[in-house]
Amino acid sequence: MSLRNWLGTSYLASADKDPEQAATDAAAIVVISDDSRLRQSLRDLLQAYEHLCFGANDCASALALHQRQPADLMVVDLQHPRANEHALRQLRKILPQIPLLLISSSADPATARRFLELGASQHLRKPFVPEELLTVIDTLVQRQRMEQRMAEIHQQLTASEQRHRFFVNNSPDVIYMLDTDGHFVFVNERVTTLLGHPADQLIGRHYSELVHPDDREAVRFAFSERRTGLRASHGIECRLLPSSAANDAAAEAVVIELSAMGIYSHPDQHPQRQFIGTYGVARDISARKQAEAQLQFQLSHDLLTRLPNRALFHDRLKQAIAQAHRNQGGLAVLYLDLDRFKVINDSLGHQVGDQLLQSVAQRVRGCLRESDTLARVGGDEFNLLLPGIRNDQDAATSADKILKALETPIELEGVEVFTSCSIGIALYPRDGETLDQLVRHADTAMYQVKKRGKNSYQFYHPAMKNLHSRHLTLENGLRRALDEDQLCLHFQPQMAVDSGEVTGVEALLRWQHPEQGLVMPDEFIPLSEESGLIAPMGRWVLDHACSVLADWSRHGLRDLTLAVNVSARELLQNDFNRYVLDTLERHGVAAHQLELEITENVLMQDMDQAVSKLRALAEQGIRVAVDDFGTGYSSLSYLQRLPLDTLKVDRSFISAITTADERNAIVTAIVAMARGLGLNLVAEGVESDAQLRYLQGLGCPKVQGYLIGRPMPPQELLRRLIA
Ligand code: C2E
Ligand code: MG
Ligand code: MG
After folding, report:
1. How many whole angstroms separate alpha carbon 682 and alpha carbon 648?
2. How far is the CA of 133 from the centre of ligand 2 (A)?
3. Would you state the pLDDT for residue 1?
């Protein structure tokens, strides 16, 4: 009997069904039968319906076939019921998932049930019409595929859910959701590592339990944020309490930055839209805060002795003066200078010199009260502020104590070093009412001690003004210097680290003294600032420097920038800006070629005026640099107010780069900060290859220092640049 006849026309018709449909429904089927004719006819039938069909006469060959071509279903049709049972057992054991259709002639319901118990997916009783067989197969295959798909989907969902859970729980930030009353409905596991609270125990608790009491009011709004998008809360700082705070009041709070937004049901459908809570992300910024605090400390302290630096001292002194003024109280400023420090430094070396300074700082500090401020303001110079001092006697007692403390020799590297110091004292308000007067008068008094034989103290006295003739001679000499053309400029190259090319120069003032030879600016700039001579001197510098630059430009050096130092008193002159612009024009120097270097202290004299003048100049294209960065009043916030282009890291930080010790941390921090603020950076005082390499490693773009070139007369630098 031909198969077609056996099947009848209706099957043939459906055998020609939509090929796509057939393809999706087609299954791989293994027919296990020990009757080869039956096997063949079943195969013919199934293949006519586009199923892929293989015949096997026992389980072993069926399994072998399945190995080569995984089957979607197996039809078992063995002649002996025992053989069927055996086959079912075997197949189920090895292929627990696959649908097994058992065909037998048994009419006994118990036998049928037994087949099902043994793992048959369905029992089909012979005789059956082919239609019945095909439907059963179809159903079994569909069901099997559906189950498979479900299992896959389930697996995918589980994986995706796990993935999300993983991301959320391993997020570096705390992610949480609050209900409309501020209770946690969700918080990720980051809260456990950050604060020690198990995440699940926070559910239902109010957020305010985690917030530092002093911050609660400030962040109330952010934690109940209803807004979304850009208007929602961003970057709100606050402190969160660790779980240990419950038993330990001193437990350190964690500083975080909070962003939060409202969540809504049906966010896009207005009428149904309903506020259901707040979603937020809290980022731990304690490391950043610590770094900022560390930078602030480093910028306001001398790193060798860890004492306040001059800037911090001036801050404290100003405050103390204001307070003394209010309370009609008094205070004392002591100027301390070590005797013969230079001799010790030169004979025993810098390292011993450094250790000596540290030991002296420690001893002097041991003589002081909590409220006193000792600062290192120069190589071997210290300033001391004693608030609440009303008479000479109180100040003298402190000075005596200090001199006494230094009497015992200091042992350094096995050598006993004897040291002493000279102390000048000025009292507020008797000897001066301003910071400047007090410091200067204490200095003058100290100078008298030095002249009289050191290792003692001395109060300031108005008569000393004339005794302090060093200043007067200098001032007269300086006036003559201006008139008689004794000033000259040296130029020091600045190099781009990347290309090794000289990209600019700094003009540095020198005084060609008729008797003393070349006098350096540190010796006469402070006095010329005090006497007002700096204004005409500064004009001379700018004019002269621009004429040199114009000359170099005629030699083909067109792209150099020219850095010129500007003092506060110069900048605050009424017509300073006009003079600068006129000078540039007169010499044909482009505005962007000029960079004005100001120190942080310049800004502090009159911040508002300085900022507005510099802004006006910056608008014309003139560049602005902060010089000696890190030694002055380093409030980082002023940097943002200034139209700044460049930071010049002070030489003292660079000279500290000898080894990878803590003192380098500040250079690293400044380089990173400059990059963060988009500023150009010049490292000053680069003297060694090691320093250059270190700075290059940090990504510092520009350097200046003896390694690249000392300050030199313009003709000499020109020769080098065009060589
Ligand atoms: P500054 O502006 O920070 O200038 C850098 C100083 O560091 C210069 O000292 C320079 O000679 C010195 N220097 C550069 N490289 C190295 C190095 O590798 N090692 C060492 N040990 N020193 C290096 P200089 O010329 O004595 O000037 C001292 C300060 O005087 C200047 O410091 C600046 O504040 C002031 N100054 C110089 N010229 C002028 C000026 O025309 N006007 C004003 N207002 N101040 C000026
Ligand atoms: Mg400078
Ligand atoms: Mg400098």
Report:
1. 5
2. 98
3. 31
Q: Is 238 helix (H, G, I), strand (E, B) or coil?
A: strand
Neighbours of ion ligand 2 (CB under 5 A): 565, 597, 627
Which residues place a Cβ less than 5 A from the ion ligand 3? 627-628, 684
Which residues in the chain come in under a pLDDT of 70? 1-25, 465-472, 601-602, 604-605, 631-638, 659-663
What's the token pair of residue 573?
A: 């002159």
Take residue 307 and report the two structure tokens written for it: 């004492």
Q: Give the tokens for residue 698.
A: 């940090």
The span from the CA of 567 to the CA of 589, in Å, is 21
Helix (H) or strand (E) holding 445: helix 435-452
Write phi, then psi, for 653 (nearest 5 degrees). -75, -35
Closest CA to 142 of 111, 121, 125: 121
Instruction: Round to whole Å and give the CA distance between 238 and 168.
Output: 22
Type of residue at 214: D
Q: Whose CA is nearest to atom 17 of ligand 1?
A: 685
Strand partners, 54: 30
Residue 455 Cα distances to 332, 375, 421, 438, 464, angstroms: 19, 19, 5, 21, 19
Most ligand 1 atoms within 8 A of CB, residue of 350, 502, 565 to mutate = 565
Whole-number Cα distances in Å, 543 to 125, 421, 579: 115, 44, 9
User: Distance (Å, rounded) from C-alpha 322 to C-alpha 319?
Assistant: 5
Q: Tell me the β-bridge partners of 624.
A: 596
CB-based contact 442:424 (threshold 8 Å)? yes
CA of 93 to the centre of ligand 3 (A): 85
> How is residue 220 written in tokens?
């109330």
Distance CA 119, CA 113 (A): 10
Residue 231 Cα to ligand 2 midpoint, Å, equals 44
Give the total residue count for the chain: 723
Cα angle at 104 between 99 and 105, to 5 degrees?
155
Q: Are 298 and 666 in contact (CB under 8 A)?
A: yes
**Structure tokens of 705?**
């220092």
Ligand nearest to the CA of 650: 3
Can you tell me the distance from the alpha carbon of 503 to that of 500, in angstroms, rounded to the nearest whole number?
9
Distances (CA, A) of 193 to 188, 189, 235, 358: 10, 7, 21, 41
Summarize pLDDT for 585-619 with one digit per residue, the tens.
999 999 999 999 998 766 766 778 889 999 999 99
Best mutation site among 508, 518, 548, 702 for ligand 1 pocket (most ligand atoms within 8 Å of CB): 508
Distances in whole angstroms, Cα of residue 408 to Cα of each of 359, 360, 417, 422: 12, 11, 9, 16
DSSP per-residue string spanning 288-327? HHHHHHHHHHHHHB-TTT--B-HHHHHHHHHHHHHHHHHH
631 pocket-lining for ligand 1 (C-beta < 6 Å): no
In this structure, which residue's CA is closest to atom 33 in ligand 1?
Answer: 565
pLDDT at 14: 37
pLDDT at 3: 29
Whole-structure pTM value? 0.53
pLDDT computed for residue 19 by the predictor:
39
Element (DSSP H or E) covering residue 387: strand 381-387
Answer yes or no: is the C-beta of 518 below 6 A from any ligand 1 atom.
Answer: no
**Tens digits of residue pLDDT in 297-346:** 888 899 899 999 998 999 999 999 999 999 999 999 999 999 888 778 77
8 Å CB contact between 573 and 605: no
Q: Which residue has the tokens 């282009």?
A: 645
Contact 696, 702 (CB under 8 A): no
Cβ pair 680, 646 in contact under 8 A: yes
Q: Whose CA is nearest to atom 37 of ligand 1?
A: 508
- The bound ligand whose nearest atom lies closest to the alpha carbon of 509 is 1
Encode pLDDT of 387-397 as tens digits. 999 889 999 99
Q: Which residue shows structure tokens 């002639």?
A: 105
